[in-house]
From TrEMBL:
This is Sigma-70 family RNA polymerase sigma factor. It holds the Pfam family Sigma70_r2. One of its GO terms (molecular function) is sigma factor activity. GO terms for biological process: DNA-templated transcription initiation. Gene3D superfamilies: 1.20.120.1810, 1.20.140.160. Keywords: DNA-binding, Sigma factor, Transcription, Transcription regulation. The keyword DNA-binding applies. InterPro entries: RNA_pol_sigma-70_dom, RNA_pol_sigma70, RNA_pol_sigma70_r2, RNA_pol_sigma70_r4, RNA_pol_sigma_r2, RNA_pol_sigma_r3/r4-like, Sigma-70_RNA_pol_init_factors. It comes from candidate division WOR-3 bacterium.
Amino acid sequence: MVKDLPSYYFFLSQQYPDLSREEERELIEKAKKNNYQAFSKLILSHLKLVVKIAQKYRSKNLSLDDLIGEGITGLMEAIHKFDEKKNARLATYAAKRIKYRIREAIFNEAIFHFSPKIQKLAKKIKKEPPEMLFQPEQLAKKFKVPLSEVKQAINFLNLARFNLEGEETSEENPILVNETRETQFEKVNIKKIVNECLSQLTERERLVIKKVFGLPPYKEPESLTKIGKDLGLSRERVRQIRNEALKKLRRFLNKRLNLISFFL
């Protein structure tokens, strides 16, 4: 709904009409020759597409503004890679890049909400026969862990598939990762990535993040209230520190993955 949209992005998206095929082709040719005005016009005329796609990927951890920003990154990449000589419109090609960048941002943000313990369990579960994913109780017994942890691990695997495959999951299809993607995912050293990210934070931010998500040396996630009590801070102040730290982590991950920053 309009009232739920970021007013700035929504306002901009309504100010620029759709381009004709001829206008689009001409602007793309100019944009590829580093014509900033042509590039900007292509971005703004396709902003409606970015907003529309971002709305479909509502995330509790990222604002719609954040998702739109990631979508714009995908749009920028699409403009550079698009072959205007082919009989296709930029919007059709760009939609895939927009979705990819938004999914990637959601995954990068969400990974910090899964403790190393859950990630390790997910790696074990992924080696089990696919049908076992429909039997979390059996997995809990096999690995001698609480059912709640198994469900979290399956959610982590679902999230990985969502990011790598670009398909949303459902109860009927909890996880389908092909051999190539599965091999790639196996090679991801999550512990190394987390440590690299945490090194970007201040000492207090690092402490709060470790406590919030139960990262070593803390074995279990702690509530904001408890963290505040331990640090002599209000719950609200701890929440602010956590959110600021997560923003830093997201920015670092974006740079690490060679994402392009873009500000309107």
